[in-house]
């Protein structure tokens, strides 16, 4: 792996910041100052230090993205910009979005290269809560709320699983579901004669969208957030 890529991977800084650290002679590899960002290192066996402090390589990376509208939740697409196009080159190798949001949906998207954790989070048996801020075309009646919460027919074999609706204002509601069927939220509101005008995911399992992230921005998850994801799935780290 290139030295500058390694330094980004351990979250020492952005690509330009780490290059600056290298240029200033603050990075050593096996005790020798290294001034070339492109130098190849072995991330497992070499000892890389920043100001004499060893940097520990982590195999897995975990990001929270505030997905903007207009990008697709895929790793590549021949026609559209993808969520991976929003992640810097040094940080995106091997990562993928955990689940999908529609092209026009905004909000919290979790990305990682940790396949085992992603698999657990996406397992229908795990019932991971996903909460959406939904803007509707029409207001919801009490009956609509009862239907949505109890399960509605969206044309699948079975009705949707129990959900939670919280009315915020005449046309804004929070919907929490545990499934992730194709266009599920939109289809649930269509099933009660309504129409979703705008959709934003604000939580995914224990993760809440960091409101300091502007659409298109992302950040590394904290250790606490990563731990909470593992706790919720009983996956082995
Ligand atoms: N449900 C939808 O209809 N769209 C999404 O993007 C996510 C959930």
Give a verbal description of the structure.
The protein has 237 residues and is α+β, with helices and mostly antiparallel strands. The chain has 3 domains: 3-54, Structural Genomics Hypothetical 15.5 Kd Protein In mrcA-pckA Intergenic Region, Chain A (Roll); 62-124 and 207-233, Pseudouridine synthase I, catalytic domain, N-terminal subdomain (Alpha-Beta Plaits), CATH 3.30.70.580; 129-204, Alpha-Beta Plaits (2-Layer Sandwich), CATH 3.30.70.1560. It has 6 helices and 13 strands. Strand 9 and strand 10 (172-177) form a beta hairpin. Helix 1 packs across helix 2. The longest helix has 11 residues, at 223-233. The radius of gyration is 21 Å and the shape is elongated. The two termini are 23 Å apart. Uracil binds at residues 101-102, 105, 183-186, 199.
Helix content: 10-25%
Quick check: average pLDDT?
A: 94
CA-atom Rg in angstroms: 21 Å
- Rounded to the nearest angstrom, the distance between the terminal CA atoms is 23 Å
**How would a textbook summarize the main sheet?**
9 strands, mixed
CATH class identity of the largest domain: Alpha Beta
* Helix/strand order: HHEEEEEEEHEHEEHEEEH
Task: Name the bound molecules.
Answer: uracil
| β-strand number | 13
Tell me, briefly, the overall form: elongated
Helix/strand/pairing category: alpha+beta
**Poorly predicted parts:** none
In short:
With 237 residues, the protein is α+β, with helices and mostly antiparallel strands.
Based on the model shown, name its key terms.
about 240 residues; alpha+beta; Structural Genomics Hypothetical 15.5 Kd Protein In mrcA-pckA Intergenic Region, Chain A; Alpha-Beta Plaits; 3 domains; nine-stranded mixed sheet; four-stranded antiparallel sheet; 6 helices; about 20% helix; binds uracil
